[in-house]
Amino acid sequence: MAASYARKHNCQPVANFRPISAKNALPTLASAWLAVVVQSAVFKRVASGLLACALGSVIGVVRADEPAAGFAPPDESLFAPGRFVYERNCVMCHGRWGEGDGEMGRTVVPKPRKFVSGIFKYGSTPPGFLPTTDDLMRTVRGGRANTAMPFFSHLSERDIRAVVEYVKSFSAKWRRRANHAPPVPLPPPPDWLGDAKLAEPHVTSGKAAYAVLCAACHGEDADGKGPAAAELRDAWNDPCPPIDLRLPAYRNGRTAADIFRVLTLGINGTPMPTFGEALSAAQRWDLAAYLLTLRPPPATRRVN
Q1: Less Cβ around it within 10 Å: N or C end of the chain?
Q2: Does residue 178 sit in helix, strand or coil?
Q3: How far is CA 35 from CA 76, 106, 171, in A?
């Protein structure tokens, strides 16, 4: 059939044709744009069919075009440039379709994020909700300490925003209002954090809280080797060993505010819970202050 069609329309066969892929060619901006147009058209066709089956006449149902706090659908106008950035910088670890199965990501620990799952560990939103766009841009810009995720500070802000919007295309969770929430407001660090003498009683209080709440996983010596550590697994059923809290930097940041945020919100997809209700804000600051004392002094840290 193909041969008769070619003869009828005077078409010439294309020799040695090879489709563009992450394995045989770098993407061009034009190919990225075309692929995203097709991908977006298919998604809209499927979504419109599902929407037609919904019972939109039920009283109290919010219209799809009504705004919701913390919700903004992915910006499809940035999908094409975002895919261009993604295939040049991210595909080797996170995989072409965001499944975390890139060639360079198969042996690293922790494994690259599976964007198709729509689960992101770090953010400023309540536990169980998607992170904000700014949260994802922060990760791309600054990387994640003690992981294979590097920083991409050489990318422009537009490129970072574009690749973040493209990452959202891998999971339908980004298009559902119920998965979004505004950031949780956090208090500023207390004044005593900057004074070692004033911080002493707070550090003592934080150490007591650590023994009760953290030592089972992170260990009495904060080396990540607590009695429960070996059994911990994440949402992807991969081993999830607790972090060594004596490291100079944690994956979510280096500051007391970063530690406080994790203590308040937990880490999505992992056994690390939220202590936002179990501990008061003052107690969480005390615990953060104690964790800061576990790090080696700056003079003894290895310079990379």
Answers
A1: C
A2: helix
A3: 12, 26, 17
Residues 177/62, Cβ–Cβ less than 8 Å: yes
Going through the chain in order, the beta strands assigned E by DSSP cover none
Q: Which two tokens stand for residue 17?
A: 């044709």
Q: Which of 29, 28, 25, 2 is nearest to 13 (CA)?
A: 2
CA distance 254 to 236: 26
pLDDT at 164: 97
Q: Are 243 and 224 in contact (CB under 8 A)?
A: yes
Comparing C-alpha atoms, which of 120, 221, 222, 117 is closest to residue 173? 117
User: Comparing C-alpha atoms, which of 230, 281, 231 is closest to residue 259?
Assistant: 281
CB of 127 closer than 8 Å to CB of 266: yes
Q: How far apart are CA 288 and CA 105, in angstroms?
A: 32
3-class SS of residue 301: coil
**Which domains are seen in the chain, by residue range?**
29-41+71-179 (1.10.760.10), 191-300 (1.10.760.10)
pLDDT digit string (tens) for 219-257? Answer: 999 999 999 999 999 999 999 999 999 998 889 888 999
Return the structure tokens found at 186.
């956090």
> H/E element holding 223?
none
Cis peptide before 190 (omega within 30 of 0): no
Token pair 């993604």 is found at 86
